[in-house]
Amino acid sequence: xxxxxxxxxxxxxxxxxxxxxxxxxxxxxxxxxxxxxxxxxxxxxxxxxxxxxxxxxxxxxxxxxxxxxxxxxxxxxxxxxxxxxxxxxxxxxxxxxxxxxxxxxxxxxxxxxxxxxxxxxxxxxxxxxxxxxxxxxxxxxxxxxxxxxxxxxxxxxxxxxxxxxxxxx
Length: 169
Known about the structure:
Layout: E1 4-8, H1 11-22, E2 30-33, E3 53-59, H2 66-75, E4 80-86, H3 90-97, H4 103-111, H5 116-125, H6 129-135, H7 148-156
Parallel strand pairs: 1-2, 1-3, 3-4
Helix pairs in contact: 1-5, 4-5
């Protein structure tokens, strides 16, 4: 049976993906932690089926292990995969989708902090994420909408992969 599997890098992405699934903003599916930049996906390929829709949410602020990433894309070529590219990281994506001028403003407006670590901790523990996002003018249409720079990276490294994920239910 065809299923949707979302792979995320960090716990803040997991929290947001859970919220988006629970509010039926994105398709329902399994959530698993995996980083395409740092770990080989050889074992991972044994856990997904060829017909599954496999979506990786990736950060682009530290793209150092390019060889690992390229090898993973090669290993996943025969699967139905798509990349959701975060412009830098989730905090930067939230900044853009909530119309904040910078991450410090995001951190302050959400949780009255200037610390990225404290923001992440509070975001993960947030009991009413819907209200928090609503209070900060969150626009889902803007989230993960800036993959153009990353497309250049893919072209430069001759990597063919889908960046237009249809995650809507």
